[in-house]
Amino acid sequence: MNMNPLYILPNLFTAGSIFLGIVSIVFASRGVFELSCWLILFSMILDGLDGRVARLTNTTSKFGVEFDSLADVVAFGVAPAMLLYFYSGVAYGKYGIVVSALFVIFGAIRLARFNISTTNAEPSSFIGLPIPSAAIMISLWILLDLQYNILEKWNMKYLLLFLMLLLGILMVSNIRYPSFKKTKWNLKIFVILILILGAIYLRPKEVIGALMTLYIFYGIIRWLFVVIIKILFKKSEIKK
Fold it and tell me: What residues contact 141, with CB distance under 8 A and at least 6 apart?
C-alpha cells in the first residue's frame, strides 16, 4: 500500500510522544524523578504538534486519530501513573498499585468517550478533564515537591495518591473544561499571554503549576455553581 510521505510527519510526532513516555517510565523506575517529569511535559508538546501538523498538511486520517489515542494512554496515562507510583505509591503497597491502575483505566475511558463523542470540528469545551492536563498536573506537583520538599518533610506523600485519584475521577466525570482551541485572539489576550510567558520564564514550575491547578478547580467550582443554581431554580418552581 502506497502512502503519501506527508502522512508520516504527524505520526512521527505521535511516535515521539510514546517514546518520551516510555523513557519517562524508565527514569522514574531508577529514581530520576525530575527528568521523568520533564519528559512527560515535553511529550505533551509533541502531542499538541501532531494534530496541528496533520491539519496544516491536510493529512488527517482515522489511523492518526486512533494512533494518537493509544499514544495518549501511554504518555499521559501509564507514564504519569508509574512516575507517581515510584515516587510515592510504592511506599503504600496495594493502595499505590490500585490508585495508579485506576488512573490509567479512567484515562483510557476518558479517551474512548472523547473519540466516540467528538465530531471533526474542534470542541469548545471538554466533558471531563483531558488526560494530558491530568498528566501535566501530576508531573508539576512532583516537580514542586522535589524543589520545596514539603510533602517529604511532613511525611504526607500519600496526598499525591488522593490527588491522582481525584484527577482520575475528574477525567470520567461530566464536568466541563474549556478547550481554548476556539479562542478569539485580540490585543488584550495577546498582552495577557505575553505577561504569562514572562512569568513562566521567571518561575516555570510555580507559574504553570498554579495555572493548571486553577484550571482544574475552575471546572469543579463551575460545576458546583451550576448544580446550586439548578437546585435553587427547582425550589423556586416548586414554591410557585
Answer: 160, 163, 209
